[in-house]
Structures are given as C-alpha cells and as structure tokens.
C-alpha cells in the first residue's frame, strides 16, 4: 500500500453518513491508534471497527503511524471541512486516547 496515503489518512469525516443509526448526521472516523488502551474491545474482535461494515476504513486509518495527538489534529481539520448544518457524531470508530487529544478535537474542530 502507498505509504503516503497511510500517513496522510489517520482520520476522516463525512458530511452525511449512510448509516441508518446516524440518520443523516455528519461523522468522523479515526484508527485504532487513537483509541484508549483501557478500551476493553481494543485487543479483541468485539470492536465495531474491526468487524462491522466500516472495517476497511478502520484498517486504513489504523495504518497511520501518527501519535494520538497528531491524529486528533488531523481529525479536527476534518471536522472543519464539514458544513456544520448537520448533527455531528464524533468517532463512529476511533476515540481520543488522552485529554489533550479530546481538547484538540473539540477546540480546533470548532466544537
Ligand atoms: S473504536 Fe471504540 S470500541 Fe473500538 S477499540 Fe476504539 S475505542 Fe474501543
């Protein structure tokens, strides 16, 4: 796989999710390296990102070698790309591993 793509895509956003549970919400996605180590699903296959329909996106974002803080910065930029006209579901997959990461996503994402 192209290493530039791996490095550049630790997170993404979508203006209008097709997931029926999100009902036209915007949403973001991040890889496993954004997830807290205390998540009981992180080392199992019970995580939705590992087994659900968005598995390929989760794998792509997980291949990024960026630290959680850098992933958060990237995700914040993704949030800024959205119109803001829809409700936002942050982290359909992924999470903020640290308080600083959560602050970056919320502050710099304009939330
Ligand atoms: S995506 Fe959610 S459930 Fe899966 S490992 Fe990360 S925090 Fe845990």
3D architecture notes:
With 111 residues, the chain is of the alpha+beta class. The protein has one domain (11-108). It has helices at 3-8, 48-51, 55-62, 68-81, 99-108; strands at 11-14, 26-30, 88-93. It has a three-stranded mixed β-sheet, sandwiched between helices. Helix 4 (68-81) runs parallel beside helix 5. The relative contact order is 0.25. The model is unreliable at 1-6 (pLDDT under 50). The structure holds iron/sulfur cluster. The site of iron/sulfur cluster has 10 residues, from loops.
Quick take:
The protein is 38% helix and 14% strand. With 111 residues, the protein is an alpha+beta fold. It has a 3-stranded mixed beta sheet with strand order 1-2-3, with helices on both faces.
């Amino acid at each position: 796989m192209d290493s530039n793509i791996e490095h550049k895509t630790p997170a993404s956003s979508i203006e209008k999710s097709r997931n029926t549970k999100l009902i036209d919400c915007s949403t973001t996605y991040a890889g496993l390296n954004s997830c807290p180590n205390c998540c009981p699903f992180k080392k199992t296959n019970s995580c939705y990102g590992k087994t659900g329909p968005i598995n390929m996106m989760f794998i792509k974002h997980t291949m990024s070698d960026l630290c959680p803080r850098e992933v958060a910065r990237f995700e914040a930029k993704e949030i800024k790309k959205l119109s803001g006209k829809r409700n936002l579901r942050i982290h359909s997959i992924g999470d903020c591993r640290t308080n600083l990461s959560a602050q970056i996503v919320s502050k710099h994402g304009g939330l």
